[in-house]
Amino acid sequence: MRSIMVALFILSTLEYSWANTPTKRNDLREVKQLLIVVTEDWKSTKGKLICFEKRLNGTWSSVFKEHFPVLLGKNGLAWGIGIHPTKKEKMKIEGDGRSPAGIFKVGKIYGESESLPKGSDYPYHKISKHDAWVDDPKNPFYNQHVKIENLKDKPDWFESQRMRLGDPAYRWLIEIRHNSNPPKPGYGSAIFFHVRRTPERRTTGCTVMSITDIEKLIKFLKEKNNPHYILLPRKEYDKKRPLYKFPKL
After folding, report:
1. In sequence order, which ranges of 22-181 are alpha helices (DSSP H)?
2. Is residue 224 domain-resident?
3. Nearest to 192 by CA among 232, 233, 229
4. Residue by residue, what is the 3-state secondary structure of 131-177?
5. What confidence score (pLDDT) does residue 21 get?
6. Is residue 28 part of a domain?
7. Domain extent at residue 58
């Protein structure tokens, strides 16, 4: 078992190390793409996603004429763990049905297709029966992608943590790097942008949208532009805008 765990650690580290060091707190100077959802308040369960790109002069420009309607956690928002200073109150915890609020790096894209939609240019991993994403706070690989090459040697927990295949809602998964560097057990896991199930069904914490919109989003993302996601209630966004130089909405 010890050799299996060591192998798992190596595989997980390889999969996990693609991401750059998180952006310095209070500093988005190296960020050239922003995905922004501003809600009415902490209880909101829906919003509109606006994609911004930084111009050469340092100002922000909205990319799409139409904003993307999104659905959020069924119980609203709670503070997540991202590049913003961590809050001790109203924290996102595992199973609370809330979307993590804050500023987060956008991670790798996962899916069952052989490749991303035509015109895309972003890190991608094709998932299979060998892939798991751990949501058990007691597991040492909590909130990490783990790939087991030899399923004959899979650990006992693997089946319950395996990434779901054949589910249209998970056709594309764009990682929102909440609680990821390093993960803190119990503070929320497996937070993604993905395809909504219905136009009204809220989530357990993810940000979801139509298949058409998520494929537009995938084509928009560029790793070199260091994309980040901002999800905040209006009052918090306005309060933090001067410090982080967020776009004016």
Report:
1. 158-161
2. yes
3. 229
4. EEECCCCCCCCCCCEEECCCHHHCCCCHHHHECCCCCHHHCEEEEEC
5. 37
6. no
7. 2-22+35-244
CA distance 176 to 180: 9
Give me the residue label for tokens 């058409």.
Answer: 212
For the chain, 249 residues long, the average pLDDT of each consecutive 10-residue run is 45 38 60 98 98 95 96 98 86 98 98 96 97 97 96 94 96 98 97 98 98 98 98 97 93
Query: 15 with 146: CB under 8 angstroms?
Result: yes
Asked whether 37 and 100 are in contact (CB, 8 A), the reply is: no
Looking at the structure of the chain, the number of domains it has is: 1
Does 249 fall in a domain?
A: no
Q: Is the pTM of this model over 0.70?
A: yes
Answer yes or no: is 154 within a domain. yes
Give pLDDT, residue 17. 32
What pLDDT shows up at residue 230?
Answer: 99
